[in-house]
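[retry 2/3] Stage II sporulation protein M: previous attempt timed out, resubmitting with same input.
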Amino acid sequence: MFKKTGNVVKEHIKNNKFLYLSLFLFYIIGICLGAASVNDLDFQQKGEMVTFFNGFVKLLDTNDFDKLDLLKITLLDNTKLILLFWVLGFTVVGFPVYYAVLGMRGFSTGFGSGIIMGMLGTKGILISTICFVPKEIILVPCLVALGVNGIKLSGAVFKTWLKRSGSGYDGIKQKIGPYNFVAAFFSFFILLTTLIETFISSGALKLLNF
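[retry 2/3] Stage II sporulation protein M: success.
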């Protein structure tokens, strides 16, 4: 079963490699823009952000920090993202929104890591690696896959909408099952990053004792 699923995923990526590359490129562009925008902040603004981050790290060592609350917040955020990507597939405007969301995701990652590395140097690189890499390495490919999945269905919806064809809507109905399967498959791994962010990343920060 796992081998068959793996072959289906490989075939899906091969047949849609242009979409995968273009969506991932938007994410990379977002990272570059986010990192570059750090230079537009003055020293005081950077200092305030680092102070906030250090306060969060110290909170990890107190009894006031509840990982269950962090788990709920992160789970809610990821669930909202999954639902957004799923719903967009049924619309005629989904195509550009996927690119925009991945670009903004990259921007926030680049901005956050740029702030930390710029102010803390080598320590900042270590913190950024702990905070961003473990979850992003799983989350981003899954978001890209959901984006490709949604763009394919959104494109079919758009073509049917233009033609006003009843038979076209029947074809879309046949695509809904595979669409939901792919969405559920990659959503599982996205939700897995919730555990990584809550327990592994925060736990590693506590061990570093910044």
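[retry 2/3] Stage II sporulation protein M: The helical segments are 2-15, 17-37, 43-59, 67-88, 94-120, 122-131, 133-163, 166-208.
[retry 2/3] clearing retry counter.
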